[in-house]
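Pipeline run #58 for the internal structure catalog. This entry was flagged by the ingest filter as a single-chain record with no existing model, so it goes straight to prediction. Upstream metadata was stripped on purpose; only the residue string is passed forward. Reviewer on rotation: M.T. Logging verbosity set to normal.
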Amino acid sequence: MQSITLASEERKNLIRKMKRERQPSRRLRMHIVLLCAEGRSPTEIGRVLFCSRTTVYVVVARFVRERQAAFNDRTRRGPKPLIEEPANEYIERLVEEESPTSHGWLRSRWSCKLLAVELFKERAALVSRETVRRTLHRLGFRWRRPRPLPPEKDSEDQREQKRRRLLGILSMVEEAGVFFQDETRLEINPKVGFCWMRKGKQRQLRTPGTNRKVWISGALNFHTGRLHWVKGERKNDELFMKAARLVAEGLPLPQAVAPGNRQRREPHQQTSRALRGGFGRTHSPASFAFVVSGEQSGGIGVVVVA
């Protein structure tokens, strides 16, 4: 076996690197070189480090030829990678600098499947999502949550977003019709989900500032597109009753009813009065339902089901 001679400073630096090294294969090679420089035989080194004498001979001979490069793993032989360097650079640019919406996708973040489709669309590579996943890990990306970053207070973008939301709601107000009723919760802060980012770096996600939550209960007119909506602090019976009264205020009564036929007119009048003045004690607000009456043109009936 060839002998190895290390200077005092080189030996100290090698010991320091070995203690900080996290990769076991590199740490083993460094340890073999240090023991060989101390004059240990291959048999003693193999017994102490639990490795074969052949491994000791190979590491020492490689260190004599390559010095510090001998600690790195050799380039493995195998098939040509499916994603070459130009495609790797394109993936890095997509994940770090561009968003899916700028490429025509209705998505807020890049997934492995979406990246594979984008590569196929641009004719960069034809690979599966698992190949993209391995490539992202090899490039140093990790699937983590971004860190919310609030914008400046009273920014122009924030005012423009509020104005567009208000205009969209006001444009729906027309007249009563067939209603679809539902509730939802609105928050100012966006939903924070996982996305790809560099290893050791947390991506920033801008938020509008102080978060506010509110429950919205609305009834959408199927024919006219008008939306009746109310807001509340919680999703409960009071929120539903508030929305029902708002719809009943503009509810028209059937017009094509024969004179004297009070049996068909009276249920509509009683229902409208009940909604405007408050629900009866015998009805449970949680079991109310809107039912469309299609018997008369221009008339809509609302039935309260207990």
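catalog note: Residues 262-277 form the longest helix (16 residues).
catalog note: The longest strand covers residues 179-187.
status: ready for reviewer M.T.
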